[in-house]
Amino acid sequence: MNKNPLIGLTAALLLSLGAASATAADYLIDTKGAHAFIQFKIAHLGYSWLLGRFNSFSGEFSYDEQNPAAARVRVEIDTASVDSNHAERDKHLRSADFFDVAQYPKASFVSTGFKPLGDGKAELTGDFSLHGITRPISIAVTPIGHGPDPWGGYRRGFEGRTRFALADFGITRNLGPASKEVEIYLSLEGVRQ
Amino acid sequence: MQWRNSEKGWGVMTILLHWLVALTVIGLFGLGLWMTGLDYYHPWRHRGPDLHRAIGILLPFVLLLRLAWRFWSPPPLALPDHRLWEARLARIAHALLYLLPFAMVLSGYLISTADGRGVSILGWFEVPALFTAIDRQEEVMGRVHATLAWGLMGVSGVHALGALKHHFIDRDKTLSRMLRIE
């Protein structure tokens, strides 16, 4: 690619500047300011949806508009922070019947690929670890927006959706035939570092 | 038949309260153990905990009545054949048997109200949530509740073994005076 040595040098310099680069950039997911959400949705008896979220997680991503395929994401979730707005249900979700948070306090996602689909959307693939089991999953990603924030920073946000069977991660508690799969919705805002 | 305790034996009131609390506490323990393992589709999945909470919230009123009655109508004297270590162990067990059920009720209440919602007592009335300040309160109190429950069953076991020892080995009236209304 580098036909001109000057361009190569400039590119190397830009890369070495890392965070200062306007294109390839690392973003810290803004969990401190709670501009990031990890929610789940599962059928209740097949008659309605039960919604919940994880209140405590952290992560970062790297995104380069010139080279979106190089995007990387890493998220770590404290499984004990599950919150379905009902203390006794959350207690049950944290127990060995579901997340078994004493044994598996963390769930994590580490991306392995990012495939732009042309229409602005993308498919993010990665290894998802939950309940001690790691499996590849695919997340449908839509960029929301990016730009300077009013306080001197630079932010970029995405949303993502995925779904998987709880049994794939060894969570086999019977919730009924309509409730075998859970949907995950992510809305993540990163602050450029 | 007399309501108050005498120097020689228990009155009707104490005997009734004793067995009411004993059955309630053991029943709540069994129900609690059973209901927490129920499958999602079990018909008692909601009924069990609802009943457990309702009885649990009503229990302290009986406990208070019982405690008040103990002061109003003091227990009979210990039987003369009881040895010092027996009397001491009995006193510790009795103190715990009065104290632990209150702690059970309190910890149970703090589980059920951990998210700020009150406890509905079978639709009759609702006990409001007054304290939600502990981080992951339902978790912490759940552990306290379970540990105290087993502790209470242990103390009850010692208490029952003592009664049986007096009855079958010492052949004294310790157990029969708590069973027979004279």
SSE order and pairing:
The complex is a heterodimer of chains A (193) and B (182).
Chain A lengths: L4 H13 L7 E5 L6 E9 L3 E7 L2 E7 L8 E7 L3 E2 L3 H8 L11 E11 L5 E9 L2 E16 L5 E12 L15 E12 L1
Antiparallel strand pairs in A: 1-4, 1-11, 2-3, 2-11, 3-6, 4-5, 5-7, 7-8, 8-9, 9-10, 10-11
Chain B lengths: L11 H24 L8 H29 L11 H29 L6 E3 L3 E3 L9 H33 L6 H4 L3
Antiparallel strand pairs in B: 1-2
Helix pairs in contact in B: 1-2, 2-3, 3-4
Summarize the structure.
The complex is a heterodimer of chains A (193) and B (182). By secondary structure, chain A is mainly beta.
Descriptive notes:
The complex is a heterodimer of chains A (193) and B (182). Chain A contains two helices and eleven strands, in the order αββββββαβββββ. With 193 residues, chain A is mainly β. Chain A has a single domain (24-192), classed as Lipocalin (Beta Barrel). In chain A, a hairpin with a 2-residue loop joins strand 8 and strand 9. Chain A has an eight-stranded antiparallel beta barrel. The longest helix of chain A has 13 residues, at 5-17. Mean pLDDT of chain A is 90; it is low at 11-22. Helix content of chain A is 11%, strand content 50%. Chain B contains five helices and two strands; from the N terminus they run αααββαα. Chain B is 65% helix and 3% strand. Chain B has a two-stranded antiparallel sheet with strand order 1-2. In chain B, helix 3 packs antiparallel against helix 4 (137-169). Chain B has 182 residues and is mainly alpha-helical. In chain B, a hairpin with a 3-residue loop joins strand 1 and strand 2 (125-127). The chains are: A mainly beta (193), B mainly alpha (182). At the A-B interface, helix 2 of A face helix 4 of B.
